[in-house]
Design a protein that fits this description.
Number of strands: 10
Radius of gyration: 16 Å
Strand content: 25-35%
Number of helices: 6
Distance between the termini: 43 Å
Order of helices and strands: HEEHEHEHEHEEEEEH
Shape: globular
Helix content: 10-25%
Amino acid sequence: QKEDLVSKVSCKKMWYSRTTNPIATILVVDCGVKTSLIKELSENGFNVIVCPYNTTKDQILRQKADGIIISNGPGNPNDNEEVISLVKELKGKLPILGLGLGSEIVAVAMGAEVNKLKHGHYGVNLPVRNVLNGKIEISSQNNGYAIEKSSLSKTTLKVTHEQVIDQEIAGFADENNKIIGVEFNPQYNKETDEYVITRFFNMIKRGE
């Protein structure tokens, strides 16, 4: 049974958060985005455009953003057909960063399977292993779903982070299609060299 929680929490019309001397413009597809993320992006020097979950590819491309974030939010990622097809249409055209629910939506759009966990990942101070450099990062998480590891072989996604507690996938990337996804909130990892907003900006810069 489809719950459609994202349609209940997403904004109803496009809105803007501008900053002085922006380094880039990020468009956030609102699946239930926290205002703390918008503030975080502004403080990092980005102009931000926030748009409803059902915004079309053409409406998004018209905004001429440098990169797209599919935000965190509630519910089952598989229920979000509009956002899944949006990611399919936009992949390779613009850098895409998926956060929380957004990362699961991106994974589904790329051909992975995402299933409900018996025990979800909820709370702060949850350890995540960065498989690229072996470092442990401390994260804040709120997710009840996980990407099925065995289904990744059907996709172009590579694992970048895993949950220390149960070895589930906590992050992935696809450099060729300019995609990053993380299950955790980026705000809490600012002190690490793997701050995901910086990684995303570097991906945007490489595409210029």
